[in-house]
Amino acid sequence: MTDDIAYHRNRASRELNLGLACGSLAAARAHLRLSSLHFQKARDLESPRQAERPPFVL
Q1: Contact, 51 vs 44, CB < 8 A?
Q2: What is d(CA 51, CA 56) in angstroms, rounded to the nearest whole number?
Q3: What pTM does this model have?
């Protein structure tokens, strides 16, 4: 389980960095959306009660 959390946190951080460095607004939004989904998945794995929160939408 902790491997899954670590995977999603690492992936979220990577997507966040890619989104912040993009020259294209559309690509930045896609990376930031993926980052948000991975951060949410990590939170859900840590505390299943948090799963009821809607994802962040740009």
Answers
A1: yes
A2: 13
A3: 0.76
Q: Is the model's pLDDT at 29 over the cut of 70?
A: yes
CA 1, CA 32: separation in Å to the nearest integer?
A: 24
Q: Which tokens belong to 24?
A: 């294209």
Q: Distance between CA atoms of 58 and 56, rounded to whole angstroms? A: 7
Report pLDDT for 2.
Answer: 84
The C-alpha atoms of residue 1 and residue 41 are separated, in whole angstroms, by 12
Q: Report the amino acid identity of residue 50.
A: Q
Cα distances (angstroms) measured from residue 14 to each of 11, 23, 31, 38, 43? 5, 16, 9, 10, 17
